[in-house]
From TrEMBL:
<feature type="transmembrane region" description="Helical">
    <location>
        <begin position="109"/>
        <end position="130"/>
    </location>
</feature>
<feature type="compositionally biased region" description="Basic and acidic residues">
    <location>
        <begin position="464"/>
        <end position="473"/>
    </location>
</feature>
<feature type="transmembrane region" description="Helical">
    <location>
        <begin position="363"/>
        <end position="387"/>
    </location>
</feature>
<feature type="transmembrane region" description="Helical">
    <location>
        <begin position="142"/>
        <end position="164"/>
    </location>
</feature>
<keyword id="KW-1003">Cell membrane</keyword>
<dbReference type="InterPro" id="IPR020846">
    <property type="entry name" value="MFS_dom"/>
</dbReference>
<feature type="transmembrane region" description="Helical">
    <location>
        <begin position="333"/>
        <end position="351"/>
    </location>
</feature>
<feature type="transmembrane region" description="Helical">
    <location>
        <begin position="230"/>
        <end position="250"/>
    </location>
</feature>
<feature type="transmembrane region" description="Helical">
    <location>
        <begin position="170"/>
        <end position="192"/>
    </location>
</feature>
<feature type="transmembrane region" description="Helical">
    <location>
        <begin position="271"/>
        <end position="292"/>
    </location>
</feature>
<feature type="transmembrane region" description="Helical">
    <location>
        <begin position="298"/>
        <end position="321"/>
    </location>
</feature>
<dbReference type="GO" id="GO:0005886">
    <property type="term" value="C:plasma membrane"/>
</dbReference>
<feature type="transmembrane region" description="Helical">
    <location>
        <begin position="53"/>
        <end position="72"/>
    </location>
</feature>
<feature type="transmembrane region" description="Helical">
    <location>
        <begin position="204"/>
        <end position="224"/>
    </location>
</feature>
<keyword id="KW-0813">Transport</keyword>
<dbReference type="InterPro" id="IPR004638">
    <property type="entry name" value="EmrB-like"/>
</dbReference>
<keyword id="KW-0472">Membrane</keyword>
Length: 493
């Protein structure tokens, strides 16, 4: 199907196979991002890991995913989206198997980094395959179904994760990806047509991708290990900042950069991405610590802790499309100002969650307020990012915003325990963890208020002919959805 207009109809058998393939592929990465947090206390206990190792269990995946996701989209545009997607699925499965049999924390962290590489290859491909395969008349419905099924996966992820941890064991949180991949890859090869962006000139910005990933890794290491106070930590921090500066210089001078800096000439695009950093830093810190709080301090099982967080995802599934429609009518400024404030209120309500907390009277109210805040801001945030640049660069804008959200989350997971005063053994000491959790929630609330103030000061209504995202249903609260029309590599479908 290279170079031809996409013509597969959703009602055809091939259309249903394509939808199944993309749902399975994206679900692997989405499930992984939502279920691992529930397993962290059990992983730490079984492997004798300290808090830093648990942070790396989350962040090793995010470092490689955030650093390479733009490159992954570009590889699909050049060499074929199906091919790169299948490679990503199989890579992800192999790394998941290594995670599942890891004998120690170091092996687990290394395998998680490899998982992130696979995720960077398969994540952009899911929506890109839909865009490149389906007839334009069916594309919107296909994306809606993809998003809806993905949202269901996000909703059941913590429940499944908790069930696996309390049942067969935490290793199955990773091993479950293997049968999914063994189903997904053959279906993709047999039923999904190959496609590419039609571009063959220019070089890949491998140096830019490498510098971005190295900068994230070194800064993350410095934040996680800062309590040790060793010269290596200080050296890592300096080297990470130097790598970040080098990344900017390389992107500025390359003829085909991974992240063209001139896109930030749009003040609104720049401002909304800073708002994204604030919002998703708070979300990343909250979801990392909340499942620990519910297990370590409140004393719930992994299943109960995972299930407890379902209201936020359920609200996103039910109301995000309506939130996007409201933002279309009144403009994004009010939702992007009010949404973070509501999220901040929800996190402050979590201060009431302590030992023997009751779910209905103490946990649920906080999650409902937080979920309503997420509903209010996430869809307008994505739409405003896309509306801030010309249509031809919508895919690039979406990819940058997605990478920014992931980077914000991993930095928050690294920095928040340090700023809240959590020691290496904090997750084994309920009293100490409870005190630090309260400080962390206050810090998250402050960051959200800052994001709200920035949105109020900078966000304006887009032009009437702005590009609307086809993906209007948001099921995952961990990251914003990729825009449906283009892969994060910035190339047209």
């Amino acid at each position: 199907m290279l170079g031809r207009m996409p013509d597969v109809r959703l009602s055809s058998p091939q259309g249903r196979w394509i939808l199944l393939t993309t749902v399975l592929g994206s679900s692997m990465a989405l499930l992984d991002s939502t279920v691992v947090g529930v397993a962290l206390p059990r992983i730490g206990r079984d492997l004798g890991a300290d808090l830093a190792a648990l942070q790396w269990t989350v962040n090793a995946y995010m470092v490689t995913l955030a650093g390479l996701i733009l490159l992954g989209g570009a590889l699909g545009d050049r060499f074929g989206r199906r091919k790169v997607f299948v490679v990503g699925v199989l890579w992800f499965a192999a790394a998941s198997l290594l995670c599942g049999i890891a004998p120690d924390a170091g092996t687990l962290v290394a395998a998680r980094a490899l998982q992130g590489v696979g995720g960077a290859l398969l994540t952009p491909g899911s929506l890109a395959l839909i865009q490149a395969s389906f007839h334009p008349d069916d594309r919107g419905r296909a994306v809606g179904l993809w998003s809806g099924f993905g949202g269901i996966g996000a909703a059941v992820g913590p429940f499944v994760g908790g069930w696996l941890v309390d049942g067969p064991g935490w290793r199955w949180v990773f091993l479950i990806n293997v049968p999914l991949a063994l189903l997904c890859a053959p279906v993709a090869v047999r039923h999904v047509p190959e496609s590419s962006g039609g571009r063959t000139e220019g070089r890949f910005d491998v140096l830019g991708a490498a510098l971005g990933a190295v900068a994230l890794a070194l800064v993350t290491y410095a934040l996680i290990e800062a309590g040790a106070g060793s010269p290596l930590v200080a050296l890592s921090a300096v080297a990470g900042l130097a790598a970040a500066v080098a990344f900017v210089l390389v992107e500025k001078r390359r003829p085909h950069p991974m992240m063209p800096l001139d896109i930030f000439a749009s003040r609104q695009f720049t401002a909304v991405n800073v708002v994204t950093l604030c919002v998703y830093a708070a979300f990343g810190g909250f979801f990392f610590l909340a499942v620990l709080q519910l297990q370590v301090v409140v004393g719930w099982s992994a299943l109960a802790a995972g299930t407890a967080l379902l209201p936020t995802t359920a609200l996103m599934l039910l109301l995000s499309a309506r939130s996007g429609e409201l933002a279309d009518r009144i403009g994004p400024r009010v939702p992007l100002t009010a949404g973070p404030l509501m999220c901040a209120a929800g996190m402050l309500l979590m201060l009431r969650v302590g030992p023997d907390a009751a779910y209905v009277t103490e946990v649920l109210p906080a999650l409902l307020v937080l979920g309503l805040g997420m509903v209010t801001l996430v869809a307008p945030l994505t739409a405003t990012v896309l509306a801030s640049v010309e249509t031809a660069r919508a895919g690039l804008a979406s990819g940058i915003n997605n990478a920014a959200a992931r980077a914000a989350g991993l930095v928050a997971v690294a920095a928040l325990p340090l700023l809240a005063g959590m020691g290496p053994e904090a997750y084994r000491l309920p009293g100490a963890f409870d005190d630090a959790f309260d400080r962390a929630m206050v810090l998250c609330a402050v960051v959200l208020v800052a994001g709200s103030a920035l949105a109020f000061a900078t966000v304006r209504r887009p032009t009437p002919d702005c590009r609307r995202p086809e993906c209007r249903t948001h099921g995952s609260v961990a990251v914003p959805p990729l825009e449906a029309g283009r892969g994060p590599g910035g190339e047209g479908s």
